[in-house]
Amino acid sequence: MLSFRNVTKNFILDSATTITPVRDVTLDVAQGEFIIIVGRSGTGKTTLLNLAAGLVKPSSGKVMIDDSDLAGLSDKRLSSLRSHKIGFIFQFPSLLPSLRILDNVSLPAIFKDRRNGANERAVELLSTLGLASKIGVFPRQLSAGEQKRVVIARSLINQPQVILADEPTSDLDTRTEQEVMDVLRDINSRGVTFLLVTHSLELIPFATRAFEMNQSHLNQIK
């Protein structure tokens, strides 16, 4: 479903300085897996996630989704693939403060030109995540945990095959972290694939497989 083949990513900072946050990573993620990658800040986790999304191109190796080499796709085809197959949960809520919760969740469907039924599906997702009473409010009126649930709903609006999650429980208390992970595990049980990066070792039990990102390399720990 999602494959990394000997992937390395270099960033050239200046004529004398090159950093390599991802070095020779090979990983196959099957449909329905829940992969968690742990590591300290600056170890390359987010770069790996950006490579999976096609937001950056590898310096060498291949990143593939369903046999499509992301680096070989045009911007238009890559955008279409993201819209149809990938959902994003970012570290920070990134909700638009001037839009109601319903509109924040519907927005990716509108960008995908799926206006018909977008609001109905958004209502369904928000209700499933326990936010039926919050549909008409604005982000500032929600708790941190509720905002995370809205972001999760938004990531699902286009019915993606895989969700890329960057520190989805950061800045949450232990109880809210557990609630959010229970929601993600329930979504995963319905066949949605997860690739989640985090600094929190406490999340490892949720994974079908877990890896540590250390000095740009990926090592399996579960």
In short:
This protein has 222 residues and is α/β, with parallel strands linked by helices. The chain has helices at 45-53, 75-85, 101-111, 118-128, 144-156, 174-188, and strands at 2-14, 17-29, 34-38, 60-65, 68-69, 86-89, 162-166, 193-198, 209-214, 217-220. It is globular, with a radius of gyration of 17 Å.
The CATH architecture term is 3-Layer(aba) Sandwich
Strand composition percent: 25-35%
Tally the structural domains.
1
* CATH fold name: Rossmann fold
The general outline is globular
Distance between the first and last residues' Cα = 20 Å
Number of helices: 6
In round numbers, the mean pLDDT is 91
Task: Using the coordinates above, name the CATH class.
Answer: Alpha Beta
Structural class: alpha/beta
Question: Percent range for helical residues?
Answer: 25-40%
- What is the number of strand segments? 10
What do you see in this structure?
With 222 residues, the chain is an alpha/beta fold. It contains six helices and ten strands, in the order E-E-E-H-E-E-H-E-H-H-H-E-H-E-E-E. The protein has helices at 45-53, 75-85, 101-111, 118-128, 144-156, 174-188; strands at residues 2-14, 17-29, 34-38, 60-65, 68-69, 86-89, 162-166, 193-198, 209-214, 217-220. The strands form two sheets. A six-stranded mixed β-sheet has the order 6-7-8-3-9-10. A four-stranded antiparallel β-sheet has the order 2-1-4-5, covered by helices on one side. Helix 6 (174-188) links the parallel strand 7 (162-166) and strand 8. Helix 3 (101-111) packs across helix 4 (118-128) and helix 3 (101-111) packs parallel to helix 5 (144-156). The longest helix has 15 residues, at 174-188. The model has no long low-confidence stretch (mean pLDDT 91).
